[in-house]
Amino acid sequence: MTPKFNLQNVLDLRHTKVEALETDLGKLMAARQNLEDLLMGLYENRTGLLEKLFLEQQGEMDLFNLSILRANIVATDERINQTIQAIKVMDEKVDRKRQELIAAKQEEEMLVVLKKKQIEAFHQDQKEREAKQQDDIYIASAFRQRREEARNG
């Protein structure tokens, strides 16, 4: 039976940390995707407003509607810029979380490798003990056989 890995509790904690970081990274990436979707919606809204502005400028112009459309375009442009900045901030958060996850996975993998080496060393020690016991059995058997031959012979 393989002995218990003496750092198993630490390995379990590191694995739990990796899982939590993976969850956090997934949430951050989902939030980033939501911002990206919002940005696309804002661009579509802006395009619609520009088309309306173009149509309002055809024929008889209503200055009140034109000023409202221009104000909406300016407000949409501001939201677009804010969303672009929010995406940049989110990209930084995602990158930091990804680096944190990589470091945690490396720490976990180090313990997994250490555990494998401990198991391999245990199995190698078992093989050596079994081989030594087998040698002892052969030596004892050969000794008995010679002693029997010496008595009989």
What's a concise summary of this model?
By secondary structure, this protein is mostly helical. It has helices spanning 8-56, 63-152. It starts with 7 loop residues before the first helix and ends with a helix.
Can you describe this structure?
By secondary structure, the protein is mostly helical. The protein has one domain (8-116): Helix Hairpins. The chain is built from 2 helices and no strands. α1 runs antiparallel to α2 (63-152). The longest helix has 90 residues, at 63-152.
Q: Name the average pLDDT.
A: 93
The tally of helices reads: 2
Helix residue percentage:
over 70%
CATH topology: Helix Hairpins
Which structural class do the helices and strands define?
mainly alpha
**H and E order:** HH
Sequence-ordered SSE layout with sheet pairings:
Blueprint: H1 8-56, H2 63-152
Describe the structure using short key phrases.
single chain; 153 residues; mainly alpha; Helix Hairpins; rod-shaped
